[in-house]
Amino acid sequence: MLYEIILLAQLQQKRKEIIMKNNIIPAIWFDHNAKEAFEFYSQTFPETEIEKADDIVVEGSIRGLKFIGINGGPLFKPNSAISFMHVFETKEELTAVWEKLSQKGKIMMPLDSYPFSELYAWVEDQYGVSWQLYLGKLADVNQQKIIPTLMFCEKQQGRCKEALAFYGELFPDFESQGVLEYPEGEFKGQVMHAQFKANGYTLAAMDSGYPQDFSFTEGVSLTISCKDQEEIDYYWNKITEKGQESQCGWCKDQFGLSWQVVPKQISEILSNYPQANRALMGMKKIEIDKLINA
């Protein structure tokens, strides 16, 4: 009995070690104008940096949060099923960002005072990327200034709790930081707002409070950067067990949310091994050895 307890503890620790060192990075699909968009963000948000830009991807950070921009063409578009909630501690900074994002954008909720925040707005910018601007305290969101927020709507309406349970199993380094339910009305008992940490990364989730005509698409995906093939296998198998495989490391979970499961050294592999790009196009789950030895 003691041996079994020790073995289970070792297996659990190993499982945590596999996963805790990952990074989750939002990836946004653009119609061949990712660099233009990131240059706009660098003029809109303080602390924005473009680290790499080519014809395929742009890599950078906004307010300390890593982002990837994909020059994918018109096939997919971002929408408000995944928005980025930016927490501000001053009205002046929030208002300045609002003025820039709302130009040529689509206002979802106007800049105003609401029961949940003294100053708040929801806007899709000119590139279709959805932002929630919230006056609050960074201490409440683990000092992470931008929080990717998942909204379960259309066919996924009412599945937020189920998704939170799944992500709790997917990420052993998972911490629920509160779930608030709708107290009445059509969506009573569904999730009004939830916050959680996965691999030390703060995210939020909710069921929509209104009927919507959109849901998750490849327009915004979440990239899991893995240190080795063991991590890739773990995430890929868990996500696709009830989800859906796609090409080049892309997959969807059972809620339609798109993930990219990739080795953290993917850029170096594709740069240093000329045949790796062709090999990648023929893969679903990424096999590091096959990329290198193609």
Report on this model:
This protein is α+β, with helices and mostly antiparallel strands and 294 residues long. The chain has 2 domains: 23-207, 2,3-Dihydroxybiphenyl 1,2-Dioxygenase, domain 1 (Roll); 227-292, 2,3-Dihydroxybiphenyl 1,2-Dioxygenase, domain 1. It has helices at residues 2-20, 34-44, 91-102, 160-170, 229-240, 266-272, 276-281, 288-292, and strands spanning 23-30, 48-53, 57-62, 65-71, 82-88, 106-114, 117-124, 130-135, 146-152, 174-181, 191-198, 201-207, 220-226, 244-245, 250-252, 258-263. The longest helix has 19 residues, at 2-20. The radius of gyration is 20 Å and the shape is globular. This is VOC family protein. InterPro entries: Glyas_Bleomycin-R_OHBP_Dase (IPR029068), PhnB-like (IPR028973). Pfam families: 3-dmu-9_3-mt (PF06983).
